[in-house]
């Protein structure tokens, strides 16, 4: 059996979209129970409660989770409010403890997915389990690494699988904590339409303001649901406070989602995917142009300090020749490319004039 033949019938147990929600980290029993109670009372259709028991941190000496004591709190949430439960596992010890505590759904985090040795250890510890196991995309944009993690799980007879799109790390400063890079996620979805994909707007955005937009965009292109962080008192959260929302805000976000009908035409489905990819590229274009103008500002300062004219005809000639050469290589209209670069150059001159 390979990944394309998996039936993943576990998905049928849940309403669509599948919503997994709860705090980034388990902090105390009271915090867990209050969050669960308010999610339940909000009447949002959230069947699965999540909480981080072990937290991988970028630097040492930060809060790294409460450990196995938090599994008891998860179990109490299940008993008192009827949620299925979910948590992240990062090594064989985590797997053994989570299975013993009867956590219903497990996921492998982005920092673990990037390491095949870690994934193999987790897969062997999970051997033969019928619990659903999700794999987050690796921190770097590597589709093969993502697929390879799932193949390792399947190799250990783990057949109830799913993936989570949480965005990709970048050294550039953008409005996202992790850029969506929809193309990679949609490439995965095209290759393995039978493997459910959830979006993680919390880790893509890194803040509360963009969550609804990312969640809706994922629904537009056929994702099966989302995993999102909700805390009874987000501002006081011990980890990722800026990206967590209250249960009441969560309910509003879920209720405002526009979900595609199951009989949506192939044409509309493909159109939505293409538009999402165009939005992704547009974002990258704007970010690159912003970076280019910041460099123009530095050049403007140098020209001012050295009393050099802003417009340099020879430089404009070099830019134009290069642009036209690239247009020819890529089969694009030379007239269009010349117009684009002329507009960029004019804005660059304006920026330097302001200096």
Short description:
By secondary structure, the protein is of the alpha/beta class. It has two domains: 258 residues, Aldolase class I (TIM Barrel), CATH 3.20.20; 88 residues, Chorismate Mutase Domain, subunit A (Up-down Bundle). The protein has 13 helices and eight strands.
User: What do we call the CATH topology of the largest domain?
Assistant: TIM Barrel
Largest sheet: 8 strands, parallel, barrel
Assign the CATH architecture of the largest domain. Alpha-Beta Barrel
Q: What's the number of structural domains?
A: 2
Task: Note the gap between the termini.
Answer: 64 Å
For the biggest β-sheet, the strand order reads 1-2-3-4-5-6-7-8
Class from helix and strand fractions: alpha/beta
What is the ordering of alpha helices and beta strands? EHEHEHEHHEHEHEHHEHHHH
Pfam family, one: CM_2
Protein name: chorismate mutase
Keywords: Transferase
GO biological process, one term: chorismate metabolic process
């Amino acid at each position: 059996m390979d990944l394309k033949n998996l039936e993943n019938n576990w998905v049928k147990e849940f309403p669509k979209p599948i919503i997994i929600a709860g705090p980034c980290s388990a902090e105390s029993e009271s915090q867990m129970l209050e969050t669960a109670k308010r999610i339940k009372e909000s009447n949002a259709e959230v069947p699965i409660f999540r909480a981080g028991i072990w937290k991988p941190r970028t630097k040492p000496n930060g809060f790294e989770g409460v450990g196995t004591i938090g599994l008891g709190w998860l179990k109490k949430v299940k008993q008192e409010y009827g949620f299925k439960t979910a948590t992240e596992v990062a090594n064989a010890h985590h797997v053994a403890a989570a299975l013993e505590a009867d956590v219903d759904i497990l996921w492998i985090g982005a920092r673990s997915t990037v390491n095949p040795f870690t994934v193999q250890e987790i897969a062997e510890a999970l051997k033969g389990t019928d619990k659903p196991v999700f794999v987050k995309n690796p921190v770097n944009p590597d589709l093969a690494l993502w697929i390879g993690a799932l193949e390792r799980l399947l190799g250990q007879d783990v057949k109830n699988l799913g993936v989570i799109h949480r965005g990709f790390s970048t050294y550039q400063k953008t409005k996202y904590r992790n850029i969506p890079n929809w193309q990679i996620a949609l490439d995965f979805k095209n290759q393995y339409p039978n493997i459910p994909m959830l979006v993680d707007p919390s880790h893509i955005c890194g803040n509360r303001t963009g969550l609804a937009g990312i969640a809706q965009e994922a629904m537009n292109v056929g994702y099966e649901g989302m995993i999102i962080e909700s805390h009874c008192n987000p501002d006081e959260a011990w980890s990722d406070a800026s990206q967590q929302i209250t249960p009441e805000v969560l309910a509003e976000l879920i209720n405002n989602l526009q979900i595609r009908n199951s009989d949506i035409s192939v044409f509309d489905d493909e159109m939505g995917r293409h538009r999402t990819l165009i939005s992704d590229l547009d974002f990258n274009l704007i970010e690159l142009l912003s970076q280019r103008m910041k460099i123009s500002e530095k050049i403007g300062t140098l020209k001012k300090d050295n009393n050099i004219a802003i417009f340099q005809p020879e430089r404009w000639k070099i830019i134009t020749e290069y642009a036209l050469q690239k247009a020819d290589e890529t089969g694009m209209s030379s007239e269009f490319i010349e117009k684009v670069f002329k507009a960029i150059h004019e804005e660059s001159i304006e920026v330097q004039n302001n200096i």
